[in-house]
Design goal:
9 helices, Helix Hairpins, Adenine-n6-DNA-methyltransferase TaqI, Chain A, domain 2, alpha+beta, 401 residues, 4-stranded antiparallel sheet
């Protein structure tokens, strides 16, 4: 019977040979030749790499300064040895200079693409993270180079593995970029589709041309503070308490960390789908004001916690979008108290008395619907992105020994 340790759990059809056990130092060589960056020989630094993604966040040739580092060639692998848990790695598609704490890895014994895949595999990551130093941990080449791993001896199998992982990386990057583009589009439209001091937005849907009226915010949304409770009221089931952790990237989520209280202590109305949940107080002042529309909640099953506000509106999508505009950001900066170690606090009365520009009900509905659709596109793209990341993690765990 074949020794399971000499073959990965997941393998391409047609490959049956045992994998060979080798030391990393036998298959990886570290480049040491130094060079100075020029416009034709760009530099790559830690801050240029998107951690864990293996992509660059800026055009290397756009830098104007010359820096000294390790010379690398196309096909080499840059591995950030400083704080290796940050996963600063890059497959070089161009010639350049690696500035900072990088290993520049190459190999004459295995496929270059497989080298890049292998340094992402769990076994290499485990060894690389057995680092020295506490404040500035670095991977130990002496430890890594003498550690053993298994590799396929068949070059075609190496290339098949790296090919599928490179393909996944491309798909992950595309979805990440699409999400950024949607977020930039939303930000631009929020600036254009809400009225300025003139009472007219720069961009509007066909058929709407009335001036926007000025109204108090409490005419659009009714706000109330959440439930104050004691630790003695907490139990394993009952009425769910919604907190700041139930708002993630502008979306409402229910988590395994949600807490519950006895129904007998609840003396405020329960929330319902369509209500707007707002963080009104938090130890991190940056989180105060974040908001999301509640969805997926059964009736009479949840209330907001004491550090939260809940808003009820006839057109919640419009109000929630209004809270994404520059007006709301200015309000938060001006009215939220706290900082310097104290809890940031947003007062209900301060928000209630704010004046905002408001269109007709039908235009509110159209704007709210439009931004809800954009938000859904962003969510759908994020879900696909997360599934691709999960798939890559699964493949890295199962396509290597």
């Amino acid at each position: 019977m074949k020794d399971e340790k000499k073959a990965p759990k997941l393998r391409f059809k047609g490959f049956t040979d045992d994998w060979e056990q080798v030391k990393y130092g036998e298959i990886f060589q570290r480049r040491s030749k130094m060079g100075v960056s020029t416009p034709a020989l760009p530099s790559v630094e830690y801050d240029d790499i998107n951690p864990g993604m293996g992509t660059l966040n800026k055009e290397p040739k756009s830098k104007g300064t010359s820096k000294r580092g390790i010379h690398f060639n196309p096909g080499d692998v840059l591995f950030g040895k400083l704080r290796p848990y940050l996963k600063n790695w890059l497959f070089a598609c161009f010639e350049g200079v690696a500035v900072g704490d990088f290993w520049v890895l190459t190999s004459s014994k295995i496929d270059h693409g497989f080298t890049y895949s292998l340094i992402q595999a769990p076994e290499f990551q485990y060894i690389a993270n057995l680092s020295s130093g506490s404040k500035m941990p670095r991977s130990d080449w002496g430890l890594v180079s003498n550690a053993r791993t298994f590799i396929p001896t068949n070059l075609s199998e190496q290339k098949s593995i790296s090919s599928v992982l490179f393909g996944l990386d491309t798909a992950i990057t595309l979805h990440e970029e699409k999400k950024r583009q949607l977020e930039r589009l939303k930000s631009a439209l929020l600036q254009k589709m809400f009225a300025d001091k003139s009472g007219y937005p720069a961009v509007r849907f066909k058929g709407f041309d009335d001036i926007w009226d000025q109204e108090k915010l409490n005419s659009l949304v009714r706000l109330h503070r959440g439930l104050t409770y004691s630790p003695n009221n907490v139990q394993d089931s009952g009425i769910r308490i919604l907190r700041s952790s139930n708002i993630l990237d502008g979306q409402f989520v229910m988590t395994d960390d949600d807490i519950f209280v006895k129904s007998s202590v609840v003396n405020i109305p329960t929330v319902k789908d369509g209500d707007i949940l707002i963080t009104a107080a938090n130890g991190s002042i940056k989180l105060v004001g974040k908001h999301a529309i509640i969805s997926g909640i059964s009736e009479n099953t949840a209330v907001s916690g004491g550090f939260m506000l809940v808003g009820s509106s006839r057109i919640p999508d419009f109000v929630n979008s209004l809270f994404d505009t520059s007006w709301y950001q200015r309000f938060i900066r001006k009215y939220v108290t706290g900082g310097n170690g104290s809890i940031g606090n947003l007062k209900k009365n301060d928000l209630d008395k704010q004046y905002v520009k408001v269109p007709t009900t039908s235009e509110q509905e159209r704007i709210g619907e439009f931004f809800r659709e954009i938000d859904q596109l962003i969510i759908n793209n994020q879900i696909k992105h997360e599934k691709l990341l999960e798939l890559k993690k699964f493949l890295l765990q199962n396509m290597f020994i």
